Amino acid sequence: MSPRRTNAERTETTRAQLTHTARELFSERGYSSTTIAEIAEHAGLTTGALYHHWAGKEALLVDVVHDIHRELAVRIRALGAVEDDPVAQLLCSGREFLAFCADPAVARLLLLDAPAVLGYERWRRIDERWWLSTTIRLVERARATTTRTGPGVEGVGTGAESSRQLALALLGALTYLGHEVAMKGEPTVTGAGRTYEVLLKSLFS
User: Fold this and answer.
1) Which of 3, 12, 31, 22 is nearest to 118 (CA)?
2) CA-CA distances (angstroms) from residue 79 to 89, 92, 97?
3) Residue range 128-173, pLDDT digits in tens
4) Three-state secondary structure along the chain?
5) CA–CA distances in Å: residue 142 to residues 26, 147, 175, 203, 205
């Protein structure tokens, strides 16, 4: 006989179920065209159950965005286990993100609906929470192991702040390339990946 689930486990299961359902409906219909009642109904729960966990639809969208980042992080961690070189990790993770953006459902939620609904600053803070510290660490490792300074790094300094700014620049480049992929689709993934590779090589070669 399996042990009885705790209240915390039941709560986590319900939240995950509602988040998954909301992500599916937001992807199919768009955030603005999906109601709280529809999310609860498709999840087989009441609107009261949903409001027990979130103040409203916008708060639920925040968790959906975190769920998308979490899925991408799992995929990128698997790549990191294969690649030990920091520049290779930056390149592989960037390519994985660009391929992720070719999924219309991901692109719609992560790059269109989320910044429009949450506002740019809040959307950016979520993005940085997931990726900035990791990117800074990889940039620092890449700078430490680069045999010569690439032309793109000249004059930016060698301290922690310059590594942070380089990390922000790389994340910004990926965001714009991701928008390009989202707008033009799968055929642009390879070209966007090559562009990102050229950028990395100009910095760390």
Assistant:
1) 31
2) 7, 7, 12
3) 999 999 999 999 999 988 755 444 455 556 678 999 999 999 999 9
4) CCCCCCHHHHHHHHHHHHHHHHHHHHHHHCCCCCCHHHHHHHHCCCHHHHHHHCCCHHHHHHHHHHHHHHHHHHHHHHHHCCCCCHHHHHHHHHHHHHHHHCCHHHHHHHHHHHHHHHCHHHHHHHHHHHHHHHHHHHHHHHHHHCCCCCHHHCCCCCCHHHHHHHHHHHHHHHHHHHHHHHHHCHHHHHHHHHHHHHHHHHHCC
5) 38, 10, 21, 9, 9
Residue 103 and residue 65 in contact, taking contact as beta carbons nearer than 8 Å? no
- In 3D, which of 173, 161, 157 has the Cα closest to residue 136? 161
Return the structure tokens found at 23: 């992500």
Q: Using the structure block, give the residue that is written with the tokens 């799968």.
A: 186
pTM of this structure: 0.86
The answer to whether the beta carbons of residues 96 and 76 sit under 8 Å apart is yes
Tokens 């920091």 -> residue? 86
